[in-house]
Amino acid sequence: MRRSSIALTSTFAVLVLAFSAWCASVLVDVSRLRDEVERRVAWLGELQEIQAEVAGATAAALPDAEARLHALDLDLLDQRASSDALSHQVAMAIVEVRALRARPEDAARRASIGDALSRSVAELRRENGALSAELGSRWTALRFIALSAIAMSTGLLALLGHSLLVVSPRLRRDAIRLEQLSLSLEETTRTARGVGHELGGPLTSALTTLQLLRDDMRGATTSRDEHVRLLEEAISALSRAAGTVQDLRASSDSGEEPTADVHAALDDALAATRFREGSPSRVTIDAEQVGLAALPQPVVRRLFAQILGVGPARRGAARPIAVRTRQEQALISVEFGVPTADADAFAGVSRALAVLGGSLSVRREADTDVVRVELPHHRPVAPRRTTLVEPRPLRILLVDDDPGVLSSVTRVLLPHQVTTSSDPDHAIELAIAGDFQLVLCDMMMPRKTGIEVFDAVTAVRPEMAARFVFMSGGSIEPEAAAALERAPARIDKPFGAAELRRLVARYGDDAAEASR
User: Fold this and answer.
1) Considering the chain, what percentage of its residues have pLDDT values greater than 90?
2) How far apart are CA 445 and CA 422, in angstroms?
3) Which residue ranges form the domains of the chain, and what is each CATH number?
4) Closest alpha carbon to 79 in 115, 119, 46
5) What are the percentages of helix, strand and coil residues in the chain, rounded to 5?
6) Separation between Cα atoms, residue 292 and residue 126, nearest integer Å
7) Are 352 and 470 in contact (CB under 8 A)?
8) 3-state SS, residue 418
9) Beta pairing class for 489-492 and 468-472
10) Whether 74 contacts 94, CB under 8 Å
C-alpha cells in the first residue's frame, strides 16, 4: 500500500511538471506571435503611407519617400530573412523611385512603383491574417490554462479544508494515542522492573530455604520443628511470588470478578509520581472509607498514575495535588486536583475508563483541573447455601507434560483416585474409555493443546464436557482464549493445595448430589 501511494504521488508530480512546461511554452508562443502581429501592423501602416506619398509626390518630395523606403527595407532585413521576397520587392521599389527622381513625369514608372508597394501590402496582410489565426488558437489554450488554474485552486482549497476539518483532528487523535502508547510502554517497563524485584526476592528466599531444608534433612542435624519452620518460610515466599503473578494476570479473563483496593492504588500511583518527578509533591488527601472497585488492581493503579502524570515531568519541582475519595451508592468517586493541563490530555484515560464501566469528567477551577473518576463498586455475591454431603473419593484424570506437576498434584489430591498422563493422545484414549468424574487438563502441551484434547474427547463422549477443568499458565493466545470459553471451568497456575482441594471438593459435592 505504501508503494502504491508513492507511485501515485510520483505520477501526479510528473503530470504537474508536464502541465507546467506546456503552459510555459504556450505563454512564450503567445508573446512571440503578438510581437510579430504588432510588427507587421506597423510595417503595413508605413507602406500604405509611402504608397500614397509616391502616388502624388512631386520631384522635391521623392527623396523623402526614398529614405523612408530605405529605412523600411533595413528593418525588414533585420527582422526577417535576408532572402525574403517582401524585402526584395521593397528594394526594387527603391530602385524605381530613384529612377523616377530623374524623370518625375514618367507616369508608367510611377504606376509600377505603386503596383510593387500594393503587392507588399497584400503580402503583409496575408501574413498578418495567418499569424492572427495562430494567435487565436493560442488564446484557446490560454483559456484552458485559466480554467485549469481555477480548478486547481478550487482543489487546493478543498484539500486545505479537508486537512483542517478531517486530517488535522485525525492526526491529533493519532498523536494522543501515540502518547498514550508511550505512557503504557513506560508503565510496562516500570512494571517489568517491579515484577523482577517482586519475584526475585520471594523466589530467592524459597530456593535458599528449600536448599537449606534439603541439606538439613540429609544430615539429620536439626529437629522436626525446625524443618516445619523452614517449610513454612518457603511456602510463604512462594505464596508472595504466586500473588505477584496473579496480580499481573488480574486484567485478563480469569473466570473470577476482579477487585481493586482504591486507596492502595492511590498510594502506588502517588509513589510513582514522586519517582517520576524526583521530589515529593504537596499532596492533600481527603479520604473516607470506600469499598472495593469492580476492576483489576493493576488497571486502577495505571489509570490513577496516568491522571497524576499528565503534563511534562518537572524534576525537582514539587506541585500541589489534592485527592478526595467518596463512596456513592453503586460507584466510588475519586477527585484529583492537578495543575491545569491541555483540554484533550485526559481523553485517552476517559475512553479506557468508559470501556471498563467507569467514567471521567474534568472541570476547571482557577488554575486547577479537578478530574473526577467514577469507578463501579464491587458487590460480592452471597454464597449459595448448600446441604453438606460426605465427600467421596473421585476418579480423576490428570493430564500435564510436566512430571513435577503430575507428582505434586497427585499427592495433594489423595485419597482421590488419580490417573496421570503426560501424553495428550494417550490421555484422549483414557478419557474416552474410562469413567472419570473429573479431568484436570493442562492448556499448553507440546503435541496437542488442552482444547484439542477437549474437542477429541467430547466429539465421542459429549457428557465429558462438563467434567473438564483446564489448568492454564495465564499466557493464552486470542484463538485459545476464544476456544476456552466453551470449557466449563479453569484454574490458573500457580495455584496452591487449598485452592485445588476446594475445586475438587466442589465437583465431589456435585457428584454426591447426582448420586442421591
Assistant:
1) 10
2) 9
3) 14-165 (1.20.120), 178-248 (1.10.287), 262-376 (3.30.565.10), 395-515 (3.40.50.2300)
4) 46
5) 65, 15, 25
6) 101
7) no
8) strand
9) parallel
10) no
